[in-house]
Design a protein that fits this description.
Helix content is about 75%, strand content about 5%. The protein is an all-alpha fold.
Length: about 500
């Protein structure tokens, strides 16, 4: 039985209008910056005079930094306040963009990408601020809009990259990140109030932070460089072993310490654990599919007898419908969550992603096929992204919102790294023989990649059925108001 809608006061409307646009722009800034370099890596390798294997560190360094800093900034936001940590997160993005603009050194460009990775903290911090600042009836829509902005920004970043490169050098990509970041910092500083929710009883966990960074670093470097080093090489297998051992040590530490960085009991709640699994799979599908579609579109048709000989801009435009689909998904996801709970949009997200990838596996000879599949895929990704925070927020107390959503964001990043590596391995594992020294995947390789993404999305859509319905976590009182852990409504039955 649904609740009667509560009237929205003028003050609440003003709060929503001031806070939410600033947070959405902050999320867009990071997602645009993170994906903008993907289509220009080959040209950057020539520009900076480095090998094709070395240039991938521009993505590896960014993914690694985001994976490590996202949960740390989320937790520090729980402990010390979300707004200060959000400003620090954006400051890292701005500093990295400024450094990238000012340097011609590959080494310093890698450092710049590490600094930009600090922007990964925007997602969990923005979601926590929405729970603190927006009226209850606006929280679900606000969280959905911020989450879907990740998919929107990723699609827009690919288009913007191509558009900028048509007229300027690769430096313009980093100028774009700098301008976006500075505007986001200004809006957050001026419009986001100091948040009232902090975990005053919590404490620092330096050993937990160190071991978390250790196993994530080992895992992501192994996954990202596996195709270059060889999946059975000593370096790759050694890093996987290090990641497993350090992750085990990290788990033991988090169970034993008084104030853990990550509450393992919280992480083991079905709504959190299975939502994190869904996040890993959706991240795999999104990043892996973007790479495959972009490469497919840019394949020279005369040589391969498939593809569209697209420029970077043209390939980005083909992926633009995914951004538009994610935009539509934000209000649609919020509506479905309010009426039916988060399960339906998360299931639909996986199903639509699978439909899009299966369609491309079967039909890919016309540009219209790419546009249609991209739109369907973007809608699915947006629905899934809007549902995951709703599941998590319904299962954790408000003072753990930052770290809980931060770990979900980390697993999306890990899934993206795995997806990109797996797709690259599929494409490079089946290449055609050409009379020129160029290696191109066969059409069958692309079909296998699309089917792989489809299967992963199907599994992601099935995961929500593993989450049973139980009583919500106990609300916590903050000042004179009660902070409801569910996503935007009074305590009711929720999936947890």
């Amino acid at each position: 039985m649904s609740e009667a809608p509560q009237p929205t006061t003028a003050a609440e409307k003003q709060s929503s209008a001031r806070v939410l646009p600033a947070l959405i722009l902050a999320m867009l800034s990071f997602s645009v910056v993170q994906t903008a370099v993907v289509p220009i890596l080959p040209s950057l390798a020539k520009e900076l005079d480095v090998s094709g294997s070395s240039i991938t560190w521009l993505m590896t360094a960014n993914l690694l930094s985001a994976a490590v800093l996202t949960p740390l900034l989320g937790r520090f936001g729980d402990l010390r306040g979300r707004k200060p940590m959000l400003l620090i997160s954006l400051a890292g993005l701005v500093a990295g963009s400024a450094l990238a603009v000012s340097t011609h050194s590959f080494t310093w460009l890698v450092v710049a990408r590490v600094l930009q990775g600090a922007g990964g903290g925007v997602l969990p911090l923005a979601i926590s601020i929405v729970r603190d600042e927006l009226p209850k009836q606006k929280v679900t829509g606000g969280v959905a809009a911020i989450s879907a902005s990740m998919g929107v920004g990723s699609g827009l970043g690919l288009v913007a990259t191509g558009l900028l490169l048509e007229h300027w050098s690769y430096k313009s990509i980093f100028w774009m990140g700098l301008v976006f970041g500075l505007i986001a910092v200004a809006l957050v500083a001026l419009r986001v109030p100091t948040d009232p929710v902090t975990d005053k009883d919590g404490g620092a966990d330096p050993l937990g932070a160190l071991t978390l960074a250790g196993w994530l670093s080992a895992l992501l470097v192994a996954v990202s460089q596996g195709n270059t080093w060889g999946w059975t090489s000593t370096r790759t297998l050694g890093l996987f072993a290090v990641a497993a051992v350090v992750a085990l040590i990290w788990g033991v530490i988090e169970v034993k310490v008084t104030h853990p960085l990550v509450d393992m009991k919280m992480m083991s709640r079905p709504a959190v654990a299975f939502t994190n699994l869904a996040g890993l799979l959706i991240g795999f599908g999104m990043y892996g599919s973007f790479m495959v579609i972009s490469n497919f579109a840019q394949t020279p048709e005369k040589l391969a007898h498939y593809g569209f000989t697209a420029t970077v801009l043209h390939a980005g435009v083909m992926l633009l419908p995914s951004a538009l689909g994610s935009m539509v998904a934000a209000p649609l996801g919020a509506l479905l969550i309010a009426r039916r709970g988060p399960r339906l949009p998360l299931v639909l997200g996986g199903v639509l992603g699978a439909v899009a990838m299966a369609y491309l596996a079967l039909r890919h000879s016309h540009e219209g096929d790419i546009y249609l599949a991209s739109a369907i895929f973007g809608l699915g990704i947006g629905l899934a992204f809007s549902a995951m925070p709703a599941y998590i927020n319904g299962a954790v107390p408000v003072e753990q919102s930052g770290i809980a959503n931060g770990m979900n964001a980390v697993l999306r990043t890990v899934g993206g790294a795995i997806g990109t590596a797996v797709m690259a391995a599929i494409l490079t594992g089946d290449t055609m023989k050409l009379p020129i020294p160029v290696s191109l995947p066969t059409l069958d390789a692309y079909r296998h990649a699309f089917w792989t993404a489809a299967v992963v999305c199907v599994v992601a859509g099935a995961v929500p059925f593993l989450i049973r319905t139980v009583k919500p976590v106990t609300s916590v009182t903050v000042g004179e108001r009660t902070a409801d852990p569910a996503s935007g409504r009074e305590p009711v039955k929720t999936d947890a």
